[in-house]
Amino acid sequence: MFLLVVSLVVVVPLIELYVIVEVGQQVGLLPTVALLIAISAVGTSLVKREGMRVYKDFTSAIQRGEEPSTQIVHGVCVLAAGVFLFAPGFISDALAITLLLPPTRALATKLVLRRSRSKITVIRATHSGPIVETRGTLASSFDVIDVDPHEGENK
Q1: Angle 39-112-97 (CA atoms, 0-180°, nearest 5)?
Q2: Which residue of 21, 52, 53, 152 has the smallest Cβ count within 10 Å?
Q3: Domain for residue 69, yes or no?
Q4: Is pTM beyond 0.70 here?
Q5: Distances from the Cα of 147 to the Cα of 65, 68, 119, 134, 141, angstroms
Q6: What is the pLDDT of residue 141?
Q7: What is the total count of domains within the chain?
Q8: How does pLDDT run across 111-142, given as a tens digit for each residue?
Q9: Residue 28, in any domain of the structure
């Protein structure tokens, strides 16, 4: 894992630099810099707009009492897009804008939730008692949440 991280930290910027130099040789220095700045400006406004949309969807899901898992994955995609836009380069900018597109986020959500739902057990505390939705198996006994259905009642 360490080797993977180190190689990404070294190799990806070198590839980005190579692409910037190649684009600069084809169109010139000033158009390349202007293009990088324009992509960053447009991407930043998209991150802000999509981030606000995801936040509103998240809060409305919470208010409706729904599980906001889809909105969380969308939020992570928007956050990753913001990180990719922070790094200068055409490849990272293209990846960031791809992550900002709703169809891409829907695909990422489907993949993440399919993988994670089989590992989750949800216990919802209600006034009439706990509702247990078993979607997978618990990894250990430390993952159990004990809910007393009569907690808070006058005895």
Answers
A1: 5
A2: 152
A3: yes
A4: no
A5: 19, 22, 20, 15, 15
A6: 46
A7: 1
A8: 888 877 666 666 666 667 666 655 555 455 44
A9: yes
